[in-house]
Amino acid sequence: MKWTAAVLLIGSLCPAVFAAETRQERGKRVVYEALQALGGDAFLNMQDRVETGRAYSFYNRQIQGLSVATIYTRYLVPEPGKPMQREREAFGKTQNEGAILLTEENGWEITFRGARPLEPERYKSYRDGVLRNIFYILRQRLKEPGLEFYSQGTDMIERVPVEIVDITDAAGATVTVYFSQFDKLPVKQSYRRRNPQFNDFDTEETTFAKYRDVGGGVKWPWDVQRRRNGDKIYEMYSTSVEINKSLKDDLFTLPADIRMLDKKK
Questions:
Q1: pTM of this prediction?
Q2: How far, in Å, CA of 252 to CA of 119, rounded?
Q3: Which residues contact 254 (CB under 8 A, 6 or more apart)?
Q4: pLDDT category, 14, cuts 50, 70, 90?
C-alpha cells in the first residue's frame, strides 16, 4: 500500500511540477539527472573499465554458449560517428579460450589459430550498438553537435515508474531510454536497426539491473540482458567491475607476430 501510494504521489506531482517544461527541456533534464545518479564528474572522468562475469549467448531462446568473460574497455577522445572506445572481450577463466578485439575502426576474432577480421556486418552491428548505448552517450556524446532529447512521458516497467526519453543524433539515429523515476538510473533502452538479410528492421533492446558502486561514486549495472525482436540473445552477470585500471595499449593491439587469417566467406 505504501509503495502504491508513493507511485500515485509521483504521478500526481509530475504534471504540476513539470508543466512549464517543453518536451526537449524535460528530456534533457532526465538525461542529466541520470548522469548525476551514475556519478556525475566521476563517471565522466572514468578512463577505462574491467568487467568479469558469466556471459551467455542464446539462439532460438536456447543457450548456445556459456563462458567466463572479461571485458576490457578504454575510452578515447570523442569523435562524432565513430565508436571512440577500444574493447577486448577475453573468454575462459584464464582468458585462453579466445577473444574479440574491437577498435574505433575495425575488429578481430582471436583464437589459437590467429586473428581473423570480423565480418563487416558484425562490426557494423557493434558500432551501432556502441553509438546508441546510453552509457556511451552519457560518457562520450553529450557535447556532440546535433544531439537532441525528447521526453515521451512516463510508463511502468516491471512495476517501476519510468521516464521515457528519445535521444536522436545529427544523423537521425534514435535510441529510446527508460529511466527509473526513483533512482534516475537507466532501466532499459531500445532502438531499431535495419536487417540487411531480410531488408526490414530488427528491434534491439537492452535491460540494466543490479547497479553497484564500482569506485569513486560511479555506479554500473552488473546484470545486462539483450533481446532482438523479443528473443533473448545475450546476458552478462558481472562478478567484478573495476574502473580506472590504467589499461595499456598492448591489451588493445594485435601482437606483431600473430598469424593473420582470411576473412570468413
A1: 0.90
A2: 19
A3: 101, 108, 110, 115
A4: low
